[in-house]
## 1
Amino acid sequence: MQKTNNTIAIIGAGIAGIATAYYLLKKQSNLKVILVDKNQPLSYTTSKSGENFRDFWPQKPMTEFSSHSIELMKDLKREYGEDAFSMNFSGYDFVSFDVDKPIFPTNSQEVFDNVMEEITDAETIRSERPYFSEKVRKIVRIKNAGNIDVYGMGMLMLSKARDLGLQFLTGEVSDIFKNKSGFQIKLNTNEIINVDKIVIAAGPFIGHIAKMLGMKLPIENILQQKFMVSDPQKIIPTNMPFTIYADGQVLDWSEEERTFFASDEKYKWLLDEFPGGLHIKPESGKIKLGWAFNTTAAQPMWEPSTLELFPQVVLKGASRFIPQLADYQNNIPGPIIQYAGYYTRTKENFPLIGATQMPDVFVVGALAGYGTMSACATGELCAKYVLSETKLPDYARYFHPLRYEDSALMNEINDSMSDGQL
Ligand SMILES: Cc1cc2nc3c(=O)[nH]c(=O)nc-3n(C[C@H](O)[C@H](O)[C@H](O)COP(=O)(O)OP(=O)(O)OC[C@H]3O[C@@H](n4cnc5c(N)ncnc54)[C@H](O)[C@@H]3O)c2cc1C
């Protein structure tokens, strides 16, 4: 394929790559942008998203970033119509048995006060949530939160970018060469693309693409899961907000189970202390649950396998604060639909968006468990870097791929009391 003067290849048509293509072409429609993916657009990590969004994070840059992304999603609906994709402001509720413990330790009380509402009145909790355990003492509500149809939003941006001239190529990038006039990208289809700039947007594989260019990115991939089951007893009301149990816990196994797990290396982990963050929401007449307790980094696979006993473990954990869910633990109302994908993350859980140490190579990724809610702000920011814009939002410097060279900035980031992961 011949290149013109300003040809940009975006490697990866997940939500990050698509949003970058959209904002690039919206800003400058005379660019030649080629989006490359091995698979169908939005079919890898993005298709596993729980589709939740919120504007509260323990760190100010993340709160500003996600708030801005929510505004950009609203802009898309304003521009292309209310029905362009669904976006429901159904809220996020964190619940805890401990009235004094902060749900998300944060250095920024100002951010907390602006976006959260705290309910500690026992009667209000009982009347709003009669199915909760009586031990629940606190609900902390994020008001500007809910769920979006990520596939609808992504396909909208893809089709609008195509209208502006975006080309989509199917093929796996197998190698990249730097030459005098730019880059040669080799696909497994034997096609070669010649481009001036590259945006690495390959989700869990951003490290693999960077390696083709001799770079190493500070990321790891951690497999996380969600699943959906029926709710024949109608335990969870269909209008319940996305609800997160904030307390850590040791699962309540019987003495016999405990002895068995302790005797077998394969099952010992079931006796560990699990972190807070178990979440549950009603979806399409069923219930969807997740719990990002896995912390083991892995090499990404195209077809990741699911963790044995995950639904049983999560239902047991969930019955701690919604006791009736214990009825489903050993008799799970099928079919069980499981979703597994990687949280690609940096140590501090901030994304990588911007220029790399190699001129004309950009990265947009490490979006962990927040990549669909932040997609619009992510794509917009990456487009600004590619177009060498100098007016950047304040959060940009916290997410720059070369931030690790700035020790003062890194000290500030590392001072955060929580990384906000769910
Ligand atoms: C279980 C789970 C639940 C989640 N829930 C939420 C949520 O509720 N809210 C939220 O905001 N976020 C959530 N996330 C996070 C969100 O889904 C991700 O951050 C986001 O989808 C990442 O998008 P991406 O475009 O970076 O990556 P991807 O969607 O993985 O896209 C990368 C693309 O690159 C392509 N690619 C890779 N290598 C090559 C190559 N060599 N050649 C060609 N193409 C290549 C892949 O085929 C893929 O299409 C969740 C994630 C998981 C795993």
Note: Residues 86 and 149 are 5 Å apart (CA to CA).
## 2
Amino acid sequence: MKSNAKRFVLADFSPAGSTRKIGIYLAQKLSQTSGLPWEHRPFTLPKQRQELLGFDEDSLVIFAMPVYAGRIPSLLLPYVSQMKGEGAKVFLLSVYGNRHYDDALREMESLCVHAGMTVVGGAALIARHVFSDTIAKGRPDDKDYAALDDHLEAILDSFKKGKHVSMPGKEDLTYYQPKGVSGESVSIISVKPATKSGCIHCLQCVRSCPIGAIDEEDPSQVPGKCMKCCACVLACPLKLKHFDDEGFLSHLGALEEKLKERREPEFFLF
Ligand SMILES: Cc1cc2nc3c(=O)[nH]c(=O)nc-3n(C[C@H](O)[C@H](O)[C@H](O)COP(=O)(O)O)c2cc1C
Ligand code: SF4
Ligand code: SF4
């Protein structure tokens, strides 16, 4: 490693946990292989975003985000656009649910360049699709981790070289348009989770929501904007939170029908 590189920093947004899981695996392995320590800088929860993201030139950053509609989650754009890189080198990790990452890596690249960082590489990894119990079930799995292991040296080498690597995706970033089972266009923007009766007011859903959308007084209500991240669905110990919107369920049916073929991790390195 270059002499001024002092640490790896994993900066991740991960409402349902898969991006964090893959990011931590990568940070730990890079740390073990290089002998440098690593730090965690999550920005999933509102309180973790009270401070802006900031890195210095001693940091080797792993910037990790999930793919939502072929890009990064749009509600995070105002926060991520303010990040400051101060000459740090960054490796991008895009995690998606076996459909495609489309323009997400390209968008992450442009945000990091705007923040003053050098993008030295990136990867697109697959995790279970949070909407579904079947799409990419069990992923990341041993084969995914083995792919990361196989690329550790090359990732370290890209950090060492410190050269900019362009990411795939369209310059004119576009959002993926969801379709239903009959190919009809579906809009899920205003969809929010419903809550079955029997709430014990444990507030697990409230605490898990990355945008503080759920009412603390009455957790069955979601007055704020919802990003459909499913964190509350996974957090509720009684499994009361669910999506029952017709368009959403039709889109889910279409995805489950289409996404049966396994996609593999991809790496973009110098
Ligand atoms: C609103 C939303 C949109 C998504 N759009 C895509 C997509 O365009 N392509 C894809 O392959 N997966 C998509 N996914 C699946 C997520 O990328 C995947 O489940 C990811 O693991 C979630 O990350 P997390 O577990 O760190 O929260 C979407 C998930 C959500 C919640
Ligand atoms: S209310 Fe929406 S944004 Fe909040 S945790 Fe639930 S699905 Fe995610
Ligand atoms: S997690 Fe479930 S039980 Fe707990 S407050 Fe939320 S809806 Fe109610």
Note: The chain is about 30% helix and 15% strand.
